[in-house]
Amino acid sequence: MLWVILIVIGYLLGSIPFGYLVSKAKRVDIQKVGSGNIGGTNVSRVLGFKWGAFVAILDVLKGAIPAYLAISPHTIFGVGVFFLNWQIALIALTPVLGHIFPIFLKFKGGKGMATTFGVLIVLLGWKYFLIWLSAWILILIIFKIMSFTNLLMASFLPLIFWISSFSLAYFTLGIILAILIWWAHRENLERIKEGTESKFKLKKSI
Q1: Quick one: how many helices (H) and strands (E) in the chain?
Q2: Per the structure, how many domains does the chain have?
Q3: N or C: which end of the chain has fewer CB within 10 A?
Q4: Helix, strand, or coil (residue 89)
Q5: Is residue 178 part of a domain?
């Protein structure tokens, strides 16, 4: 079954720890510095904005590629194959699961937000994605706390999925993604409550 194969591919692709690999190439163990997270935000803090942005783009692609394959028509034995919304939602979920629980790093990965961005670009379409992204950027500019921005905007994922598709499967995907992102940010949430969470700053690349 093709959609099952895409689920496996999506998870394995999501499990590729680009932040860890890029940092290792720079002779830095990203899991032992900064917040210890392998995502673009921590890479940016440790190695600089250029490398953090590079990692973030790769993590976005991890989410976009499986989602794009899920919504694209496929041909098997000359017969066109289209996936149902719930199948698309499952395929789109797997790279985020892979990023947060990567098999290549003993299931200790990133926060999942950049990979979720990739999923949103494909499934929401540009119109709704730009609305959501604009709100994300505005919140980040105002509060300058990446984790707070991610948590707040993750909470709106079920709503934006519903408005853009009126699909119960996509709405459920939004709920699951929001739960995963909140779970992955649980340590950040504690620091936010204590007022000790780091603010997002651009650092010169090394």
Answers
A1: 10, 2
A2: 1
A3: N
A4: helix
A5: yes
Contact 116, 96 (CB under 8 A): yes
State the number of CA atoms in the 13 A half-sphere of 59 facing the CB. 32
The verdict on residue 199 lying in a domain is no
C-alpha 45 chain-centroid distance: 18
Q: State residue 78's pLDDT score.
A: 58
**Reduced to 3 states, what is the DSSP secondary structure of residue 79?**
strand
Please report where in the chains the tokens 């939602």 appear, as a residue: 89
162: Cα separation from own chain's centroid: 19
Report the distance separating Cα 45 and Cα 39, nearest Å: 10
CA distance 113 to 146: 10
Query: Do 148 and 57 touch, CB atoms closer than 8 A?
Result: no
pLDDT tens for each residue of 90-148: 999 999 999 999 999 999 999 999 999 999 999 999 999 999 999 999 999 999 999 99
Residue 17: per-residue pLDDT: 96
DSSP string, 156-181: THHHHHHHHH--HHHHHHHHHHHHHH
Q: Is residue 202 a part of any domain in this protein?
A: no
Residue 75, strand partner residues? 80
**What is the chain's percent helix, strand, coil content, to nearest 5?**
75, 5, 25
Closest CA to 110 of 96, 123, 93: 96
